[in-house]
Each structure stands twice: as structure tokens, then as C-alpha cells.
Amino acid sequence: MKNVNPLSIALLSLIILLPASLHAQSIWSLERCIDHALEHNLDIRQQRLEVGRADHNVTQAYANMAPSLNAGTRAGYNFGRSIDQVTNEFFTERVASQNVSVSSSVTLFAGFQTINNIRLNLARQTALKYDSESLKNEIILTIANAYLQVLYFEDMLEVAEQQLENARQQAERTRVMVEGGALSKGELLEMEAIAAEQEASYTNTTNRLSLAYLELMNLLELDPTEDFTVERPPVEVEDATVMYDPEAVYHKALQIEPSVSASAKRIELAEHQLSMARGQRIPSLALSSSLGSAYSEGFRQNVGTQDAPVFETIPYRDQISENLFRTVHLTLQIPIFNNLRTRTDIQHARIDRERAEIQLERTKTRLNQVIHQSYADAMAAYQSYLSNTKALEAARESLLHADESFRLGLMSTMEYNEAITRFNRAETNMIQSTYEFVFMAKILEFYQGEGFTL
Questions:
Q1: How far apart, in whole angstroms, are the C-alpha atoms of residue 361 and residue 249?
Q2: Which of 69, 156, 289, 409 is the most buried (most CB within 10 A)?
Q3: Is 325 helix (H, G, I), strand (E, B) or coil?
Q4: Helices and strands (DSSP H and E) totals, the chain
């Protein structure tokens, strides 16, 4: 046996496995869709930037407690009559000079505004993080709804395809019966019209499925030209008697729903804003100090004799040492009147606090409404599912009987078409009620903190 090149075997295996791998990658589960959306959604990415900004503001709020430290220098020339900054003498010629300084200051007390600013920024940071979680929840529900829409229209397409095939078979069977003289030409035309209607229904369902896929891909920020197929997990209706009680769901959701936590945190934020506004009425105390020196060409010394003086500019290093100065200041600022600005800020802060309280109540009310509405919709869909299941069984039995009667010439085409229409309608209604129930039931599970899974 000839030797086989291992590299050739590896390449051949890659060629065989690659198409299957690519095909597998094009099938998207609900979990993959959700993970992809949470990673790439533009709104979520923008919200991350807001959280990052809040993180920096918290760091800055803590840094405001530390003393400031600055250094600087100023150098230049004076022309014409001027006072030398070192000797305080008048000069008329050009004089070069330089100042160097280092200064520091710290606020010792400012009506607790520094502490309240830290608390305010911490509350804002936490609120924005809750906003991010709330936005993620909205994205998850939106993606799940779009995903279920795709599954719904895929099921509807299968039904439409089967109904179209049945209609074509019935039209062909009627044609045979017309040729045999058992039925009239009008009966054939009637069946062909039914087949044409089913074909139109199939086309419409195909288009709606394409639009559902496009909507889901747009939500995922995917290129519409990419190969994209959703995974088809089993969608089953569970017993509605084991569903969560809406009141229990609501009370648990109050503890874990990020939108409620964000609204509550903004009340705390408004309280700190009010404290900061009130702090403007309190005197503030600050400590500052500086260290500096100066150099001037006009600062000279006699290097000659008293009878024959010769003046030279004192060297730069010596001047910096000799002209060294230090300052320490304690500044007390007492607010007396500032055009009602403090009073207005306090009033606005109180309004902001009340608005935050109202927003919390609105968020709770909306959450309660969503949960109870979802429960009501789920129960209605469940009852509809039970009714549609019975209706479908009855319509199926009726259609079987009608099909046999039509073959034997005991039923007119109109009556037979009515039986077909009832069956098609019952089948469609059952699929619709199934997906309505599943989505609403999953929403209740989602607000219990169980995520959204099929």
C-alpha cells in the first residue's frame, strides 16, 4: 500500500466537514439570538458608554476630596518705564523676569456638598446600571417575540403548503370526475378557484415569513444577505392550571425588576441633590498655600568698589534661593444673598424628588399592568387553544365525512368547500392561540427571573 500524505488527509477532512460546519453556524437558536443582541445592539452599547461616564464621575467625586496641586511659571520682558517685580524700583530699559510657583488648596468644609456629591454620583451610577439591565430585558423580550413570529409563520407556511397541496389534489380529482361525467364543469371551476385561493394564501404566508426573518435580522444587527435560519424547538402548550399567580409574580418582580430598582435609586439621587442644594446655605472653609520665587535682570549687586561700583545681575540660581516666598491662607465664605439662586435650586431639587417618586409609582403600575395583562392574555389564549383544539378535531372529522360524501356525489361543491374552509380556519386559529399562549406564559416566567427559554 502506498504511503498517504497526512496533510492530504487533513485537507480532505476539512473540505468534507466545512460545508456542514458552515450550515450549522447558520442555524440560530433563541439563546444565540439573545446573546448576540446583548453583545451587538447599538442601544445597549450606547448605554454601556453612559455607565462608563458615570464610573468616571464617581472617581472624580472621590478625587474632589483630595487637595489640589499646581505648578507654573511666567517669563517675559518689560519695556519702557516699569516697576521691577523683585526690587520694586523703576526701570526704563528692557528687563527680563521670571516667576515660578507651586500652589495647593483643599476644601475643609462646604456644607457636606463633597460627601453628598459622592453619594449622588454613586446613586446615578447604580441607576444607570439598572437602566442597562432594564434595556437588556426589553431587548430580550423583543428578540423573543420576533423569534416566535418566525416560528409561527413557519408553522403557518407548512399548513398553507399542505392546504395548497390538498386543494390541488381535490381539483385534479374533480377534473377526473368531470371527465367521467360524474360532475359538471362548474364544479371543476369551483375547485380550481379554491386551489387558486390557497395558492395566494401560500404566497402571502411566504412573504410574511420573509418579513418576519428580516425583522429579526434587523434586530440582531445582521446583514440581510447573510445565511440565517432559526432553530425550531418544540412549542407546546402546558397546563394553564400550573401557571404563576399574577399577584405573586408582581410581588417578586418588584424585588428583581431593574426598572423598578432604577426608579427607586433615582429617588435617592434626588435626595442627595436636595442635600447639596441646601448645603449652599452653609458657610464654606478652605485652606490654600503656595511656594514660589522670582528672577529679574534688574536685581543686581555691586561687584566693584564703593568708589568705582560695577553692577552685575545676581545669578539665576542665587535669585531663586534668595527670593523664595511662602503663603498660607484660610478662606471663609459666608453666603448672604446670591439673587435667590440657592432658594431656586432647593425648590427645583424638591420638584425633582417628587418627580422621581411619581416615576417610581408609574413604573410599578406599568409593571403590574403588564403582568396582569399577560396573565389575562395567556388565560384567554389557553381557553382559545382548548376551544380551537376541539374545533379542529370536529372540523377534521367533518372534512373526512365531506370528502367521502363528495366522492360519492352526495354533497355539492359549495358544501364541500365550506367544510374545507372550516378545517383551514380551525387549523390556523389553533396555531395562533398556541403561540399567543406560549409567549404570554413565558413573559410571566421572565418576570419571575427565569429568563426566556423555549
A1: 17
A2: 156
A3: strand
A4: 10, 10
